[in-house]
Design a protein that fits this description.
The protein is α+β, with helices and mostly antiparallel strands. It has a domain at 49-86. The protein has helices at residues 2-14, 25-31, 49-52, 58-64, 68-79; strands at residues 35-39, 42-47. A two-stranded antiparallel ribbon has the order 1-2. The longest helix is centred in the N-terminal third of the chain and has 13 residues, at 2-14. The two termini are 17 Å apart.
């Protein structure tokens, strides 16, 4: 995605930290290094993109894997031991 590429290049070129507030999990998984899920104003989960699929945090699972398709994808990845590769 063009915006993600722009944010990532500006962040790297200037050696800065960028805070992004989004619900777009495609962006989160593409450029997120330290991901934080807030629930009712508090940190409900924190980790890296590679930790998202393997997490058992209920709030994270409900948010990311709400659709039946994504629930099946996660199950297949976990069954094959690919949680850090998707």
């Amino acid at each position: 995605m063009l915006i993600d590429d722009l944010i990532q290049s500006i962040t790297q070129e200037n050696n800065i930290t960028t805070v992004i507030n989004t619900h777009d999990m495609n962006s989160v998984m593409e450029i997120g290094e330290n991901i934080i899920l807030l629930y009712n104003g508090e940190i409900a989960w924190q980790g890296s993109a590679s930790e998202v699929l393997g997490s058992n945090n209920d709030y994270l699972q409900e948010f990311i894997f709400a659709s039946p398709f994504l629930q099946r994808l996660r199950k297949a990845a976990l069954d094959q031991g690919l949680s850090g590769q998707i």
